[in-house]
Amino acid sequence: MTLGRTTTRAFVLLLALALPGRLPAQDPEARMMTPRAGELPAVARDRLSDWEAVGRLNTRGVSRLGMCSAALVAPDTLLTAAHCVAGPDGHPTAPDLLHFAAGWYGGDDAGDSPVAGYEVHPQAYAQVQLDVEHDIALVYLAAPITAVAPLRIGSTVAPPYALAGYHDHRPHRLSGRFDCDGRPVHRLLFVDCPVRPGNSGGPVLSGGPDWQVIGVVSASAGGKALVVPVDEWVRTRLLQGAPYTFE
């Protein structure tokens, strides 16, 4: 199956989330651990410490009126989706409206920082409208988060895959799956686990139990996660962070 750019743009739903306002700090635990159809379940509380590098990228300031997911891949660098920082129309978001909270959990976090700047993939908006095949970005924090070990970038793309991030049904608790199947389609990867608004930019990992990041969630397509794989642009930009990459 070949998925061209026109088809990609026409049939996917981007998953950045604009929240209607402040939500309760924490849902009841029972509700968190019982996923609805079409969503990632909450990560068990005793596993949260393993995933503190994943956090919320608040896209409309500290007031938390909008969010994506993102992951630390170096103490001062996040990997996320391009449309989380520039929008589907390519209009850039002011960095001072972006704020990252690692390991966000009901009002607490493992470390946070405002954003100093970001770079989107050079082909993401080459044709003005977002090219989903290159919906990936690096975000640079104003202050390194040194208390959290970054996730490694991997090169082996094979199931099972893991997805982790935050979504609108559970915006204050990390959700994830670690048993997802998937297949490549053109330059993208379809992963057979559901994603919702807010999951955009969340890491997609392979190689468990030593999980390594191989892509980011871009959109939902047919009930599955549409994933943009890490490419040489990302690897080149992260070269100075070699201790945090993996080959």
What does this structure look like?
The protein is mainly beta. It folds into 2 domains: 5-15 and 48-141, Trypsin-like serine proteases (Thrombin, subunit H), CATH 2.40.10.10; 161-240, Trypsin-like serine proteases (Thrombin, subunit H, Beta Barrel), CATH 2.40.10. The protein is 9% helix and 35% strand. It has 4 helices and 15 strands. The strands form 2 sheets. Strands 1, 9, 10, 11, 12, 13, 14 and 15 form an 8-stranded antiparallel β-sheet that branches. Strand 14 and strand 15 form a beta hairpin. The two termini are 29 Å apart. Mean pLDDT is 85; it is low at 1-11 and 21-27.
Largest sheet: 8 strands, antiparallel
- Strand fraction: 35-45%
Q: In one word, what is the shape?
A: globular
Mean pLDDT, nearest integer? 85
Low-confidence stretches: 1-11, 21-27
Name given to the CATH homologous superfamily of the largest domain: Trypsin-like serine proteases
Distance between the termini: 29 Å
SSE topology sketch:
Elements lengths: L4 H7 L1 E2 L2 E2 L10 H4 L21 E5 L7 E9 L2 E4 L1 H5 L12 E4 L8 E10 L16 E5 L19 E7 L2 E11 L1 E4 L2 E4 L11 E4 L5 E10 L2 E6 L2 H6 L10
Antiparallel strand pairs: 1-14, 2-4, 3-4, 3-6, 4-5, 5-8, 6-7, 7-8, 9-10, 9-13, 11-12, 12-15, 13-14, 14-15
